[in-house]
Amino acid sequence: MRLTDAEKAMRDGEGGPAVARAMDLLIRYGEALDAPYLIETRNVAGAFNASTPSVREMAKDGFDRVYSELNLDSDDTVEIPHVVVPTCQLITGIDNENWQLQGVDPDMAELQKKSEAYQGARGINQMCTCTPYQVGNVPVRGEHCAWMESSAVIYCNSVIGARTNVEGKESTGAAALTGRIPYFGYHLPENRYADRRINVEIEVEDMMDWGLLGYFTGFAVEENKPCLTGLGSSARLEKLKHFGAAAASSGGVELYHIPGLTPEAATVEEAFGPGRAEETFTYGAKERAETYARLQSATDRKVDFIMLGCPHNSLDQMALIAELLEGKRVHPDTALWVHTPHAIRQMARRSGYVEVIERAGGVVMSDTCPSISRRMPKGVRVIATDSAKQAHYLPAITKVQGWFGSVRDCVNAAVDGEWKGAA
Amino acid sequence: MDKALDRITLSGRRVVGGKASGEALVTTETISGWGGINEREGSIIELRHELRGQSFAGKVLVFPGAKGSSGWSAYFHMCRMNGVAPAAMIFTRLTTKVALGCVVTRVPAMTDCDADPFETIETGDWVEVDADAGTITVTKKADRA
Fold it and tell me: Could you tell me which residue ranges the Phosphomevalonate dehydratase large subunit-like domain spans (chain A) (predicted)?
């Protein structure tokens, strides 16, 4: 792999030992990918927090030890300097306000706060969400990024038209200290054309519709790049966020095009460029019904726990949930947790939405989600969620039964304590 | 591919250098890191995976590639720290997830073989991986007996 003089200097220690370890990791990684060179990035989204039990032991030796091992793959502990490019922390395991409700022990909550202070002192922005693009990290079209989090990567590539692969803890840790990432995959313009086609033959309107279409898409195309036609151009942030998260869960979709809506393809011809659809799929009423059935892993209609906000809710989603809960009361046998970035929670509080949700007996949770934290209210057997991604992962991870449906069906289930949702 | 003295030799591209050998564990299904493996035992835990419950610790893992969360590398990284990593990895679909995972697991890894590894390698075969030389040598389990 070709290195610039500046990169060789970093490798040889001119930026100090941590930068040298970071460049060593990037060189090993770039060679593994057979990348021709490293590309400059000024936008890193990674996972640096020490909020899991397995990290707790390591954190006894200090946070430099945690970063050196888990974010740089370095055997020796090196002093971690300030990051050199804008860098943010993605979702974590603990809500700093609601950790007691999560069942987190006080030592872990304290450790996370210390970890945040350590990161903040080094310039890592504490966004603490799976949706950095909702709270200020919005790349420009064509910008080279180094992001983790599959639902954020697909949004970044497809909706924003910026360029990132699915990075990991170690590569984002190294990118933050060097401003470099291997030039591979979605950074190359020729790899950004569609290679599968999905003809949508039914109306796709509300959030549930978009979640279902996304879940179907991932199963159909696996890790490939779909172009979807027949959708119109009215979908906004929330719907595309749900669509992408679902497609990245059932498959490994990291880039899609919707001609006339997403920025890199005004037409079907532009979406495919010099390539063509190697397979074509149809999405109609039958496929929608099959996908809905596939997402239900529950049989018991008495629900204990309603999870909303995966990926983390926007302010408009918070407003809708408050509207649906106004003057109602969550069933005494049921818990409702609504997830949103802490920056949006603050705006939702100022707007009165948090008060309405809390008065109804719900909890507004930030910084985390049940799949990441593996924490729910005690004794939960049956969950309901408006997220295809959460309905995919949570029953597998925590062995609960899961219902999937619209936000209305979920709020009604929270109030009634019973699932009555329908396709 | 070269067949001689009851052994099959494949050529491929080095992903991570080094030499290692072990018994093959082969799957044609992609593997999830986060949520798909147990990093303390080095085993597959994904509910519907054909290798569910089987350990890859010390084995030569032959698989198509990575799927799922961006935590893939972190989970294989922890397998190495816990002493339950595979001895070597051979895969067919190159992505950032699997490449970074192999790098931080620090075991010999190869891809782009000149013969389909799923046709030539079966679970239980003895496999020697020399990633620096770009060769994989397979002794079939029938010939090992």
Answer: 1-412
A240 phi and psi angles, rounded to 5 deg: -70, -35
Whether A15 is covered by a domain: the verdict is yes
Give the A window 283-302 contacts with B, CB below 8 Å. Answer: none
Query: Would you state the structure tokens that stand for residue A381, as one six-digit string?
Result: 């057997």
Decide if A33 and B16 are in contact by the 8 Å CB cutoff: no
Ranges of H-type helices in A129-184? 150-155, 169-178
CATH of the domain at A102: 3.30.499
Domain hosting residue B27, numbered range: 2-144
Q: In what order do the strands lie in the sheet with A44-46?
A: A124-125, A87-89, A44-46, A146-147
Q: How far apart are CA A366 and CA A349, in angstroms?
A: 13
Q: Is B91 on the interface with A (CB under 8 A)?
A: no
Structure tokens at A339: 């997830």
Count the domains in chain B: 1
| A54 in contact with B, Cβ within 8 Å | yes
- Find, among A331, A308, A293, A294, the residue nearest to A383 by Cα: A308
Residues 6+ apart with CB under 8 A from B97: A166, A168, B33, B65, B66, B67, B70, B72, B73
The closest of B98, B23, B93 to B56, measured between CA atoms, is B23
> pLDDT tens, B67-108?
888 999 999 999 999 999 999 999 999 999 999 999 999 999
Interface contact B28, partner A, CB < 8 A: no
Which pLDDT score, from 0 to 100, does residue A397 have? Answer: 81
Whether residue A239 sits in one domain with residue A184? no
- Closest C-alpha to A297, from A374, A381, A369: A381
Closest-CA distance, B19 to chain A, in angstroms, reads 16
Among partner residues B70, B101, B109, which is closest to A148 by beta-carbon distance? B70
A272 has a pLDDT exceeding 80: yes
ipTM value: 0.96
Q: Which of A38, A39, A169, A188 to mutate to test the interface with B (most CBs of B within 10 A)?
A: A169
